[in-house]
Amino acid sequence: MNKLSKKSNKKYYKFNKNKTYKFDYAIDILKKNTISSFLESVDVSINLNIDKNKTKNNINNFIILPYNIKKKLKIVVFAQGKNADLAKKCGADFVGMEDLLELIKKDEIKYDVVIATPDSVKLIKSLGPILGPKGLMPNSKLDTITNNIKSSIKNIKNGKIQYKSDKNGIINTTIGKINFKNYELKENLKFLLSDIQKLKYNKNKGNFLKKVYLSTTMGIAINLIISNII
């Protein structure tokens, strides 16, 4: 949750942080009280009812939201032969094998996403200490270890987002920009929560979604009425 500056506090003085709010009212509060000169993101923080001590309960998945944010991302693809040619054709920024490996090790290129074909996995294992801490190590569950290079690159260019639970069982991600229409943001959040609920484990008792907070980049976090969204 964001800490409010003195300027923000004046804007939010009527806001009761101990109450829960309907989505439409909450997003209106955030939109009316933006203070930044840049276009703020609309973020959600989702507190899950999971056993944080069991790593098998951790959530790690990806989705393409109905109304997504298409970003210009630098894409790296480890592939050879026809897959390498296809990656270049589909708009990957860097494609290769050993040569690409060395560029990353020497920190000579900038990148946001790393994709690998199954036959290149052994090669890139040595990049674990570099890519792992950044959350960029290719993973078949996240569609970044794949033979379907075209689909993987297309999904990324179409706004694919990754979401995962942290050590406290909380998912933090973005569902749009503050200039999105209210119904677009609400549909995005509904879509995200529905996708998360599909990953619920049978041993989880009670409500899987404990709390959902809505905020902007520089705004306060507002506790939402979950039943108003799902």
Which descriptors would you attach to this protein?
Rossmann fold; 20% strand; 8 helices; three-stranded parallel beta sheet; 9 strands; elongated; four-stranded antiparallel beta sheet; 230 residues; single chain; alpha/beta; Ribulose 1,5 Bisphosphate Carboxylase/Oxygenase
Topology:
Layout: H1 6-11, H2 23-32, E1 41-48, E2 60-63, E3 75-78, H3 81-89, E4 94-96, H4 98-105, E5 113-116, H5 121-124, H6 128-131, H7 149-157, E6 161-164, E7 170-177, H8 182-197, E8 209-216, E9 222-223
Parallel strand pairs: 3-4, 3-5
Antiparallel strand pairs: 1-7, 1-8, 2-6, 8-9
Please give the share of residues in helix: 25-40%
Low-confidence stretches: none
General form: elongated
> CATH H level of the largest domain: which superfamily?
Ribosomal protein L1/L10, rRNA-binding domain
Please name the CATH topology of the largest domain.
Ribulose 1,5 Bisphosphate Carboxylase/Oxygenase
Quaternary structure: single chain
Content of β-strand: 15-25%
The ordered string of helix (H) and strand (E) elements is HHEEEHEHEHHHEEHEE
- Please, what is the average pLDDT? 89
Largest sheet: 4 strands, antiparallel
Q: How many DSSP H or I helices?
A: 8
Please indicate the count of domains. 2
* Spatial ordering of strands, largest sheet: 7-1-8-9
Annotated CATH architecture of the largest domain: 2-Layer Sandwich
Number of β-strand runs: 9
Q: What CATH first level of the largest domain would be assigned?
A: Alpha Beta
